[in-house]
Amino acid sequence: MFTDRLYNHAKPIWDAYLEHPFVKGIGDGSLDLEKFKFFMEQDYLYLIDYCRVFALGSVKATHLDTMTMFADLLHSTLNEEMELHRNYAERLGIRREELENTKPSSTLLAYTSYMLNKAHQGAEAEVAACVLACTWSYNVIGLALNEKEGASDHEFYGDWIKMYASDEFTELAEAMKKLMNELADGKPEREKAHLEEIFLHTSKLEYLFWDMSYHKKMWLENSDLLNS
């Protein structure tokens, strides 16, 4: 399977997710709520552009089944995952208008701009490669944290863990992997290598997103001027 190849090459990066203090803090409940708040605000903006990439997938799809798959992913993200963010924001005292008016960090802009650029330039396979690392790795993280005793019962982070460890989200991740395998099947090695490059690049950007959230960094440089 092409996704086995992707996972094997990205595994060192994905292993680092589980060791990152932000992710570990969600698992043991020690994460500072202000850091989680920063993450939720930035991730909400990320999901808006993530939905745009799904929409591009429907436009570029050459078969009705693939068009439907991307449309279903768009619907699920808009109406389920983003609703989780809105619910958390409400518990944090953040109104929906505030979420949508959040200023994007440099890491967020780098990530979403990369996805949108590759999705616009490429075909349906490139779109699938752009969005796969996010959903698949969140499922891997959710399942791993869910195995920790008491993690899913945490009064604040428990719902986040249960969302990404749920059977429904696991099925979503598996469906995206299946789509990636179908779209990569029969492609020459040059094109597969390009898809792998996109997957690895987005995997690295995922790590940078966790790190940005932990340090609440608006800009990559450690400067008070840039981070104001």
Biggest sheet record = none
Helix/strand order, N-terminal first:
HHHHHHHHHH
Could you report the average pLDDT, rounded to the nearest whole number?
Answer: 91
Please report the number of helical segments.
10
Distance between the ends: 46 Å
Number of strands: 0
The structure class reads: mainly alpha
Percentage beta strand = under 5%
Poorly predicted spans: none
The whole-angstrom Rg is 17 Å
User: Which descriptor suits the 3D outline?
Assistant: globular
Helix percent band: over 70%
Pfam family, one: TENA_THI-4
Subunit structure: Homotetramer.
Protein name: Aminopyrimidine aminohydrolase
Pathway: Cofactor biosynthesis; thiamine diphosphate biosynthesis
Question: Explain this structure to me?
Answer:
The chain has 228 residues and is mainly alpha-helical. Helices cover 79% and strands 0% of the residues. It has ten helices and no strands. The chain has helices spanning 2-19, 21-28, 33-60, 64-91, 96-100, 106-121, 124-146, 158-165, 167-184, 189-215.
Quick recap:
With about 230 residues, the chain is an all-alpha fold. The chain has helices spanning about 1-20, 20-30, 35-60, 65-90, 95-100, 105-120, 125-145, 160-165, 165-185, 190-215.
Q: What is the fold's blueprint, element by element?
A:
Blueprint: H1 2-19, H2 21-28, H3 33-60, H4 64-91, H5 96-100, H6 106-121, H7 124-146, H8 158-165, H9 167-184, H10 189-215
Helix pairs in contact: 1-10, 3-4, 3-6, 3-7, 3-10, 6-7, 6-10, 7-8, 7-9, 7-10
